[in-house]
């Protein structure tokens, strides 16, 4: 197996009396997309700062792209792109294109390479019309796309995003997610992102790390995360005629029957069966008019994980 892009072992960071990160051990392989989630103050930003060489660990080990981020900060910055939602890496008063030029120089890219990469990113992120606009005049969605372009200018192996879609409208979120999916597919970029928006996790990540009071509380798939607290997907079926309770469908459990059996909701465990199998079983016996799938409410899943660990 290739070497991990991120590796932590028993990583600890204390602030006076607060243990912000508590013996955190995990690793991320090249090309993975990992959601790093947890309540406010759980320790997400502190971990990211240690991964990128901004904060020194109190104890334990961290390696980013195989390097010690405190000792090799410059080398790490050449291989990692970071976007902190609240902090900008762009020059506020300059036209956007100048920020790209300056960042290219900082990364020691030659002008031709900088221009070529800028052109690609600007096209993919549909930012052409904004290149001449001072950064301070960009909308929030435009600025976030610009931040991500800036973080990717030097084609890093790892892109770390702290709340990339916070405050964005639905369309901007969707475009940004589509871009990140494509970036990952085309370049194999490894993604680590923190978010409070579970849509980001669902659309972008194949693995979730849940941090709770500085500790790793879960490491696995989103489906697995839902499974750990008993949250299930629900298939909502609209039937052509009032139908007796569908309480004998293998792998599914009737949650509700409404309007005399015209609409029935069946919960199923996505690790044991599929919506297609449940639907096939029902439609072999009844006339199904319409259907919808309700995903588990992941905010609720996360809340339940905290509740299980005794946190309010
Ligand atoms: N510079 C600092 N000085 C003192 N305490 C800090 C500092 N930075 C973070 N902390 C504390 O460490 C803990 C973890 O904070 P951190 O910012 O890593 O959480 P987070 O999971 O990123 O939260 P959020 O989702 O709100 O950004 C919190 O209790 C926070 O108050």
Automatic annotation (TrEMBL):
Pfam families, per database record: ABC_tran (PF00005)
Keywords: Antibiotic resistance, ATP-binding, Nucleotide-binding, Transport
Membrane topology label: Peripheral membrane protein
Principal subcellular localisation of the protein: membrane
SMART domains: AAA
Domain ABC transporter as annotated: residue spans: 6-238
Source species, domain of life: Bacteria
Molecular function terms from GO: ATP binding
Compartment(s): Cell membrane
PANTHER family with a match to the protein in the record: ABC TRANSPORTER ATP-BINDING PROTEIN (PTHR42711), ABC-TRANSPORT PROTEIN, ATP-BINDING COMPONENT (PTHR42711:SF1)
Record's protein name: ATP-binding cassette domain-containing protein
Species annotation: Terrabacter aeriphilus
Lineage: Bacteria, Bacillati, Actinomycetota, Actinomycetes, Micrococcales
């Amino acid at each position: 197996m290739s070497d991990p892009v991120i590796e932590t072992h028993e990583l600890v960071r204390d602030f006076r009396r607060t243990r912000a990160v508590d013996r955190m051990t995990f690793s991320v392989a090249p090309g993975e997309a990992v959601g790093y989630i947890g309540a406010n103050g759980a320790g997400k930003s502190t971990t990211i700062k240690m991964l990128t060489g901004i904060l020194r660990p109190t104890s334990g080990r961290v390696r980013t792209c195989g390097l010690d981020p405190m000792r090799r900060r410059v080398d790490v910055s050449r291989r990692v792109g970071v976007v902190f939602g609240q902090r900008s890496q762009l020059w506020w008063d300059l036209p956007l294109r100048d920020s790209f030029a300056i960042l290219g120089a900082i990364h020691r890219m030659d002008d031709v390479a900088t221009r070529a990469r800028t052109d690609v990113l600007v096209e993919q992120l549909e930012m052409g019309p904004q290149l001449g606009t001072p950064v301070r005049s960009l909308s929030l969605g435009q600025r976030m796309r610009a931040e991500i372009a800036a973080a990717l200018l030097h084609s890093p192996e790892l892109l770390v995003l702290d709340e990339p879609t916070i405050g964005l409208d639905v369309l901007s979120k969707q475009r940004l997610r589509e871009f990140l999916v494509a970036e990952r597919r085309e370049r194999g970029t490894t993604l680590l992102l923190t978010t409070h928006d579970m849509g980001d996790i669902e659309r972008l990540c194949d693995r979730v790390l849940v941090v709770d009071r500085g500790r790793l509380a879960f490491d696995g798939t989103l489906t697995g995360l839902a499974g750990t607290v008993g949250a299930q997907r629900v298939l909502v079926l609209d039937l052509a005629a009032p139908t007796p309770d569908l309480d004998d469908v293998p792998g599914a459990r009737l949650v509700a029957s409404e309007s005399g059996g015209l609409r029935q909701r069946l919960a199923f465990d996505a690790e044991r069966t599929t919506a297609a199998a449940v639907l096939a079983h029902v439609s072999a016996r009844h006339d199904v008019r319409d259907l919808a799938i309700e995903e588990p409410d992941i905010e609720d899943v996360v809340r339940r994980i905290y509740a299980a660990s005794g946190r309010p």
